[in-house]
């Protein structure tokens, strides 16, 4: 009796299928090894250039890194306050501040997520001058940098009560020279002159606290 076509071809197909499976296993193993070598990272920096799906950034540590964007794998969000909105690569521009997460190999991070956010500065220092006409103070930071801080209608000012040790809301007029301040600034609020910013929030520690 003649053998069926399926039965006669099985010995020929089996080695071919086995080879394909082995190749697939090797590819998977190589991919797993690659993923193990590449650590998942989160980096932040300012965009220097966007070209052909590659975003060049200067990190907060003053390093030049490349961010690889992939339409199928990467998602970009705009963060505004408590709102997160998905945007496109074309919405990003030079000098935007972004946070990127994804695997990193050498100096290139392949983006899983990109968050366009606002960069904030958090510093501490001592008040060296108070201008009661234009409502700004000058502060010498712990890093020995001089800051000019403008008080706006939205600025939140708080002070430590040296008697009760509670944090209380206060006003510009209560701040004195040599007081220690902890302040939060939005970097985008600068530009008029070097290290001059509008205050978002400031906590004042009166000089009396340190002489008790």
Give the helix/strand layout.
Layout: H1 5-37, E1 39-51, E2 54-59, E3 64-68, E4 75-80, E5 83-87, E6 97-105, E7 108-110, E8 113-117, E9 120-131, E10 136-141, E11 146-150, E12 156-160, E13 167-169, E14 180-186, E15 196-205
Parallel strand pairs: 3-7, 4-8, 11-15, 12-15
Antiparallel strand pairs: 1-2, 1-6, 2-3, 4-5, 6-7, 6-8, 9-10, 9-14, 10-11, 12-13, 14-15
Index terms:
single chain; OB fold (Dihydrolipoamide Acetyltransferase, E2P); 212 residues; five-stranded mixed beta barrel; alpha+beta; disordered N terminus; 1 helix; 2 domains; elongated
Gist of the model:
The chain is of the alpha+beta class and 212 residues long. It has one helix spanning 5-37, and strands at residues 39-51, 54-59, 64-68, 75-80, 83-87, 97-105, 108-110, 113-117, 120-131, 136-141, 146-150, 156-160, 167-169, 180-186, 196-205. It is built from one helix and 15 strands.
CATH class designation of the largest domain: Mainly Beta
Task: Please report the total strand number as a whole number.
Answer: 15
Sheet bearing the most strands, described?
5 strands, mixed, barrel
Q: Would you tell me the structural class of the helices and strands?
A: alpha+beta
Radius of gyration: 29 Å
CATH topology heading of the largest domain: OB fold (Dihydrolipoamide Acetyltransferase, E2P)
Contiguous uncertain segments of 5+ residues: 1-10
CATH architecture of the largest domain: Beta Barrel
Give the number of domains. Answer: 2
How do the SSEs run, as a string of H and E? Answer: HEEEEEEEEEEEEEEE
Q: Which band does the percent of strand residues land in? A: over 45%
Q: Biggest sheet, strands in spatial order?
A: 1-2-3-7-6
| Rough outline | elongated
């Amino acid at each position: 009796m003649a053998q069926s076509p399926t039965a006669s071809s099985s010995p020929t197909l089996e080695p071919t299928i086995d080879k394909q499976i082995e190749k697939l296993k090797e590819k998977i193993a190589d991919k797993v090894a690659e993923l193990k070598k590449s650590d998942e990272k989160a980096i932040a920096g300012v965009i220097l250039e966007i070209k052909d799906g590659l975003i060049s950034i200067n990190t907060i540590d003053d390093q030049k890194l490349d961010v690889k964007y992939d339409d199928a794998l990467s998602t970009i969000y705009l963060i505004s306050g408590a709102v997160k909105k998905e945007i496109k690569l074309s919405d990003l521009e030079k000098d935007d501040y972004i946070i990127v997460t994804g695997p990193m190999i050498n100096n290139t991070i392949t983006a899983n997520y990109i968050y366009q956010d606002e960069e904030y500065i958090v510093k501490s220092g001592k008040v060296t001058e108070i201008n009661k006409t234009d409502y700004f103070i000058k502060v010498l930071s712990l890093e020995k940098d001089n800051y000019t801080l403008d008080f706006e209608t939205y600025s939140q000012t708080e002070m430590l009560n040296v008697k009760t040790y509670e944090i209380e809301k206060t006003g510009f007029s209560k701040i004195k020279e040599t007081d220690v301040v902890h302040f939060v600034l939005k970097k985008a609020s600068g530009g008029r002159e070097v290290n001059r910013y509008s205050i978002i929030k400031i906590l004042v520690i009166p000089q009396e606290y340190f002489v008790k």
